[in-house]
Amino acid sequence: MSAFTVLNPATGAAVRDVALASVEETDAAVARAVRAQRTWADLAPVARADALRNFARVVEDHVEELAQLEVLEAGHPISSARWEASHVAQVLNYYAGAPERLIGSQIPVAGGLDVTYHEPYGVVGIIVPWNFPMTIASWGFAPALAAGNAVVLKPAELTPLTAMRLGDLAVEAGLPEGVFTVIPGAGPVVGERFVTHPDVHKVVFTGSTRVGTQVAAGCARELKPVTLELGGKSANIVFADADLEAAAAAVPGSVFDNAGQDCCARSRLLVERSVYDRFLELVEPAVAAWRVGDPNDESTEMGPLISAAQRDRVAGYVDGADVAFRGTAPEGDGFWFAPTVVLAGRGDRIAKEEVFGPVVAVLPFDDEADAIALANDTVYGLAGSIWTRDLGRGIRVSRGVRSGVLSVNSHSSVRYATPFGGMKASGLGRELGPDAAEHFTQTKNVFYATS
Ligand code: NAD
């Protein structure tokens, strides 16, 4: 296959054919990146900072265009897509502060001066999934570039358009040619080549745990560092002492945002048994009111699933499940699936596996210890929420749940200034936050003898 037809998930109509790069084309891009990186790393830190600020400004000027493109290729509601495009500019702005702050140490030693430097890896390969095509791309490329690396980035086959446009905007903003190259292509061709190419010195992979495990194994063979952001089955834990109205009102956003195609989706709703029935009564109208429809409509909260295959996969999980209630979704063309609330048992497949669709499995728990045990009864450990009015309980449970990103009385997971990433099968390493640029460097220690 030499081209991929991008579809509009809201209608199923073809948007555009995108050529898929070959191994030879990937190698040529890496060779250009190797050359460009030397000049990029040699720039004064303030010059790299200025270039990234400029890139951020150009992205800001194109928020509407990027957002419209994301609506077209990914079916995201326009209000979410605008947030995502602005977020890319913010991530670039944030890491524009990093080149001048990659500070090493001076370590007291006998007989001389000991200094550490944070040196870039060289070329970094970034592999991105289809669920948040431009935001996830920026979490890799912004700090990697800030640290003085060149970046080759492979978007998902289904959603290459916003990443390709960001590649153009980087050049428009004045980044030297070859410093940031977007290479649309197949995972086993371009993505795999990032893993095996001797001049790609670090890989960042976001996607499924299955492919991430293969990528990590390949990187191990090459002794290449790898960051993995993988799947999730996050718990939303509601205690009887919580503000139940607020917790219930927040349920749809916690799991149906981006049609549930969110690695942080709180796809398990764990409710203390004493308030289980009452809480579901409160959740039902919130789910009914969740607005699913035309992504171009400003008031839409949820669009379609990404593809027919994804819709069939999600439907497979709901077949035969104990459905408590559902929201609504448009009929007809496009890959639509109504928000669905399922009553589940602890061993059920739907309570264990990542569905990656607008489906939440509800399970009761007995007490605090049971809630922590149930939340941890998964191979994943990405995100989660805890709803309680008891501060001590909020602290104890947040320390007890084995997840990388938790929130108490909120569902927020992503802020560019705070670290993001998973434990267990949800990943390795962290993105975002104050330390991300340093993760794209290697520490060099030099001892200068003075006698
Ligand atoms: P996927 O693993 O199928 O694909 C992800 C990317 O890897 C794509 O670009 C794909 O082309 C590429 N790829 C496929 N085979 C490859 C190979 N052999 N070598 C190298 N690259 C290869 O995942 P997906 O279906 O695109 O995305 C959904 C998954 O991503 C879900 O499991 C979701 O939880 C996860 N995800 C995780 C995070 C996070 O930050 N933890 C964020 C978003 C999505």
UniProtKB/TrEMBL annotation:
Residue stretches spanning the membrane: none
Catalytic residues identified in the record: E229
SUPFAM superfamilies: ALDH-like
Pfam families, A to Z: Aldedh (PF00171)
Domain Aldehyde dehydrogenase, chain residue ranges per copy: 4-446
Keywords, alphabetical: Oxidoreductase
The UniProt record lists the keyword Coiled coil: no
Keyword S-adenosyl-L-methionine: no
One term of GO molecular function: oxidoreductase activity, acting on the aldehyde or oxo group of donors, NAD or NADP as acceptor
InterPro entries, per the entry: Ald_DH/histidinol_DH, Ald_DH_C, Ald_DH_CS_CYS, Ald_DH_CS_GLU, Ald_DH_N, Aldehyde_DH_dom
PROSITE patterns: ALDEHYDE_DEHYDR_CYS, ALDEHYDE_DEHYDR_GLU
Homology family: Belongs to the aldehyde dehydrogenase family.
The protein's name in its UniProt record: Aldehyde dehydrogenase
Protein source organism: Microbacterium oleivorans
